[in-house]
Design brief:
With 163 residues, the chain is of the alpha/beta class. It has a single domain, classed as Sugar-phosphate isomerase, RpiB/LacA/LacB (Ribose 5-phosphate Isomerase B, Chain: A, 3-Layer(aba) Sandwich), CATH 3.40.1400.10. Helices cover 45% and strands 19% of the residues. It is built from 6 helices and 5 strands; from the N terminus they run βαβαβαβαβαα. The protein starts with a strand and ends with a helix.
Length: 163
């Protein structure tokens, strides 16, 4: 049976949507754990929140036990447009963040790109649209096949950049 963990975070411009997404996540039957890193009060800079969420996603990726090997960890980041979070998240090695604008984009970023972080824009989409995107992102598996070779290319790019 599929199990997932989700790490959630927003800056001050995405706070209302983050609170809504948190409620949605509690309804997902295969959600094992959710970590909400905030933000609740005041101003939070999106690069700091993106770094914190990505660190948690990668910690789980690198430190799973054999018992937890079947648990997948994803991040969800929300700011005003989603663009700042997406740029900041993709600065982290082994993070593949995508900015979803609709349900199809959310599905395809998982199926084709094996994205592990979903970025959303509170100013760009309604809460019901965000719900569709979150559900689609979390339920869609990586398509493997022809997409695996492209994912390998991305991983090699990460290696080149960090040398």
């Amino acid at each position: 049976m599929r199990r997932i963990r989700v790490v959630l975070g927003s800056d001050h411009n995405g706070n209302a949507a983050r609170n809504y997404v948190r409620k949605i996540l509690r309804e997902i039957p295969y959600l094992e754990t959710m970590t909400d890193l905030g933000c609740d009060e005041g101003k939070t800079d999106y690069p700091q929140m993106a770094a914190a969420v990505c660190e948690e996603v990668l910690f789980d990726f690198h430190n799973y036990s054999e018992r937890d090997a079947d648990v997948e960890t994803y991040g969800i980041l929300i700011c005003g447009t989603g663009t700042g979070m997406c740029i900041a998240a993709n600065k982290t090695k082994n993070i593949r963040a995508g900015l979803a604008t609709d349900r199809a984009t959310a599905e395809l970023m998982r199926e084709h790109n094996d994205c592990n972080v979903l970025c959303l824009g509170q100013w760009r989409n309604s809460l019901s649209q965000m719900e569709e995107m979150v559900r689609a992102f979390l339920k869609t598996p990586f398509g493997e096949g022809r997409h695996s070779a492209r994912l390998d290319m991305l991983l090699r790019m990460d290696e080149k950049i960090t040398k």
